[in-house]
Amino acid sequence: MFFSDAGARPRTRETNPAERKKWVEVFKACDEDDKGYLSREDFKVAVVMLFGYKPSKIEVDAVMSPINPSTSGLSLEEFVNIVRKKKEAQLYRNEIRHIFTAFDVHYRGFLTLEDFKKAFRQVAPKLPERTVIEVFRKKHFLFAYGMTLKNL
User: Fold this and answer.
1) Does 32 share its domain with 83?
2) Same domain, 86 and 22
3) CA dihedral 78, 81, 84, 89 (to 10 degrees)
4) 30, 101, 119, 128: most buried by Cβ count inside 10 Å?
5) Is residue 122 in a domain?
6) 22 near 46, Cβ under 8 Å?
């Protein structure tokens, strides 16, 4: 989706001027008839151009529903803000994936409670084991085979 599904919010970062320029170019390329906004279909094409996949109807509805009905679509600034949030969410998920992979030393695709405790002993040795266990179980992370990357 367009926003992080994880409990913590992605960090806000400054938009790189080159990135913003690319987003503006994509907006202009997808703004058929130079109407100054992106329709639903224009927006889908823009997402394909920037992210390489066609957004689902649910994703498009989530983006388009708060739009002012009199404008009929996304303005440039609305589009840039949406793309920036999507990029932030991607970076956040990639960061989580990187951290998870570092602790998945057996390349199983999941962390057991023992893996999780070992990881915390390395990064926070003074943290009580009870707290680590509670964190592992929090938010339904405890599954029959442990904590999986998919669940993060």
Assistant:
1) yes
2) yes
3) -100
4) 30
5) yes
6) no
pLDDT tens digits along 88-102: 888 888 888 888 888
Are 75 and 23 in the same domain?
yes
CA 51/CA 38 separation, integer angstroms: 16
Note whether 40 and 60 are within 8 A (CB): yes
If one counts the domains in the chain, the total is: 2
Q: Is residue 85 a contact partner of residue 2, using CB atoms and an 8 Å limit? A: yes
**Angle, nearest 10°, between helix axes 113-123 and 129-137?**
130
d(CA 65, CA 73): 10
In angstroms, the CA 88 to CA 92 distance is 6
Q: Judge if 78 and 111 occupy the same domain.
A: no
* Confidence at 45, pLDDT banded by 50, 70, 90: very high
Q: How far is CA 76 from CA 16, 19, 27, 57, 117, in A?
A: 16, 14, 7, 21, 47
At residue 95, the pLDDT reads 85
